[in-house]
Amino acid sequence: MRLSESTAPGPPGRPILGHIPEWRKDPVKLVTDAARYGDVVRLGLPGETYLLNHPTHVKHVLQDNHQNYCK
Question: How big is the CA angle at 51 (ends 62 and 56), to the nearest 5 degrees?
C-alpha cells in the first residue's frame, strides 16, 4: 500500500518549505509533535517522508518488506 497526503495526516507545514525550517531548528520537537497525529504521519520534508509510530508498522517497513521501501 502506498500512502499519499490524502491518507496520512500530518502537522501543517509552510508553503513550499514544508517542515524543513522546523526540522533544521529542532528535529526532536518536530517528530514528537508530529507523533500526535497518529500511527502513520506524513511530514513535509524532501521526498515522501513518513513517521511510523507503531511497532508493527516499523517491523513491516524495516524487517518484513525492507526491499520495498527507501529509507
Answer: 45
Determine whether 2 is exposed, middle or buried from the number of CB atoms within 10 Å of its CB (0-12, 13-18, 19+).
exposed
Q: What cell numbers appear for 37 in the block?
A: 497525529
pTM of the complete model? 0.76
Instruction: Render pLDDT for 43-68 as a digit per residue (tens, 0 to 9).
Output: 999 888 999 999 999 999 999 999 99
Give the whole-angstrom CA distance, residue 28 versus residue 10: 15
Helix (H, G, I), strand (E, B) or coil at 15: coil
